[in-house]
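retry 2 of 3: previous attempt timed out while embedding flavin mononucleotide. Reduced batch size to 1 and resubmitted. Inputs unchanged:
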Amino acid sequence: MVHVAPSSHLPRLTSKDEFLAFADQATQRWDELWAGDKVVVSVGVGSSSIAKGALDVLARCRQELGNSAVVREVSGNGAFWMEPWIEVKHPGAPPVVYGPLSTNDVPGVLTGARQDLAVGVRGDTAHNGIPPLNEHPFFKGQHQLLLRNSGVIEPDSIEDAIARGAYRGYFKVLFEMSQEEAIAEVTTAQVRGRGGGGFPAGVKWESGRKARATPKFVACNSHEGEPNVYKDRHLHESDPHRILEGILIACIACGAERGYNYIGGEYPLGIRRFRKAVADAERLGLIGKNILGSGKNVAFRVRTGGGAYICGEASAMMYSVMGVRGQPRTKPPRSVEEGLWKRPTVANNTETLANVPDIIVNGGEWYAKLGTENSKGTKLMTNQGPMNRMGVVEVEMGMTLNSLFNDIFGGMREGYTFKGVQTGGVSAGPLTKDHLDIPVDFDSLGDVGGMLGSGGWVIFDESVCVVDFARYLTAFNRYESCSKCVPCRLGNPALVEILDRIRFGRGTLDDLALIKRTSKHVIELSLCGLGQVAPVPLLGMIEHYEEEFRRHIVDHVCPTGTCPISATEPAPALAAD
Ligand SMILES: Cc1cc2nc3c(=O)[nH]c(=O)nc-3n(C[C@H](O)[C@H](O)[C@H](O)COP(=O)(O)O)c2cc1C
Ligand code: SF4
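retry 2 succeeded.
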């Protein structure tokens, strides 16, 4: 386990007044930073920008400026397309964001000679002809609640987070609200689980509170093992205190004495920043016994996964947290009755919990005004594929796919034509261009065979073979099956085998019927959510692109030239097999 030490200058706060005084100091420090007479340079450092050289850019800034300026390591701001970026604030002027840039561009940006690299001003008004960042199409359509600190605060600084409002909801729950009142706000907000299922969080919390066995636990599910989603990673890297506060609020509201965060082991930066947040919160006295003199106790543990997708399924996650092989179990009993160590455990997704601090501070009614009738609030979305702007965004529920893809993500890159979008990670079907007017919410996408899921969109273009893509998605579920139950363990390899037959030009039209029959068994007889939806992407591909499957089978041609059968020449006849 990586040990992350807390910041040694932090005091131990033992009362509510001490917390309020500390928060005032943090706010003052924050205001002085931006009103001071030193240049402030912030560099966006996250997993994606590091891959593009952000750490070199940070080092170059430090080398160029020495002690003459304040150089800050903030997180990425979700706009991967403009990474690496830096923000420069000169005294008396608003902060200006520049990107994408290389280390060689740094001196020019710092002296003001490279205004051509300016993307926008952080603030509401233009400066020297540079428009506000919020007017850029990528940001304009967003409604940032969870991402409002993203790329703004230093994730390693608890003072930055507190200056921007962190732990105010926790404070309310500790001192000003009963457990029932806190849960009532979450219920009124109608916030639904962001881990894919959309279950109302308030209902789950109330069951957790009412459960009689003790001790109780809260487990945050930050596993995020789907191949195309990175929203929880981004939250950990950009605003870890928001997640921690959400978990701590859930602990107090449900009467749990210990909170866990289970983070995917593939997220080293997110894990490190989150551990730092926990260490600092412990040091300040926000975690532990008699928190701020309230008489309430919460302990906290971070656990990391080893990379198995199935460990994101809540019951498997709990086994993994306990140090046991992560496999789902039959329900009932539900986790909220028998979870960790067979004790009541409230399990929620990272994003669900990250919504909670704002709900407690502003009230459930405020939150319920955002979004649609049955899907309240905002949603984090990520994209993959040949689009102009890649990244993590936060939009109000109900935005159409068209606006999301074309306005925010900027449409397809030149030379690529939209063919479809894979929804719901590996658990739902694709949608085509005919579906782009559909609003993004929990229910509308399901009506046409898609799924909001975790909000990851894989946009594919005309060069992608749907048979090959369906094989990838089915093979993912085959590899990730935990092998506990027969339909999933044997059914998924059988589906991959049929798809390979088709890809090699040996399929028959009967194979399409066989896929449907096999899928029915896997869906109806599998034990957990993985098997119960594993064939759905494949069935969706056949439904929307049946002609392309038939070309492979009847004409022995892969129209995109992707599959082992030649794009132009028929596959050789096979001996009787
Ligand atoms: C195969 C599989 C993988 C899952 N992976 C995740 C995951 O990585 N993160 C997550 O929050 N939920 C995941 N879930 C859903 C969880 O089982 C559970 O519903 C969720 O964590 C509950 O939180 P929520 O109500 O806040 O969405 C997965 C489910 C299945 C079947
Ligand atoms: S459906 Fe698949 S992943 Fe789920 S328990 Fe059965 S074998 Fe394991």
